[in-house]
Each structure stands twice: as structure tokens, then as C-alpha cells.
Design goal:
Blueprint lengths: L3 H5 L15 H11 L6 H13 L2 H25 L3
Helix pairs in contact: 2-3, 2-4
Bound molecules: zinc ion.
The site of zinc ion has 8 residues, from helix 2 and helix 4.
Amino acid sequence: MPGIELVCCPVNALMKKLPLMRSCKEVTALVIAREDRDLPLAEQLALRVHMAICKACPTFERQVLTMRHAMKQWRNYGADNDE
Ligand SMILES: [Zn+2]
């Protein structure tokens, strides 16, 4: 089927033309990296731009935040039950 890749993320076709554009692969790496360290301003901006125009990456970001929240609760649960 022609054009089926475009359904996934048409944004990726524009990536190389604009300096603040990142591919979905790069953005997911940034979302993960952001869990451990502060991103440079340019990367934060690129992340925002991408999230505004991409359908898939905001979903991924939500899942990461859900995971982080769950891990935090799990950690606190362990701490609460220590003698
Ligand atoms: Zn994306």
C-alpha cells in the first residue's frame, strides 16, 4: 500500500529542512533523557515544537510520565513499609 508510512508520522518528512525539527526517534530519546537531566534550551524548544505537530510522541510522553508516577509510588510504598 503506497503512503502507509505517512500515516505513522508525516512530520518526519519535514525534519531535515528546519533546525528545530527532530524525528520521532530523536524526540523519544529526549523524553527519556529528560528523566535524568535537564535538557539544553534548544532541545526543550525542539521537543515542544515536535509535540505540537506530532500525534505519536505526546502519547509516548504520557506513558513515560505514567511510568515515572507509578515508579515513584512504588518507591514510596517500599519506604513506608520499612521497619
Ligand atoms: Zn513524533
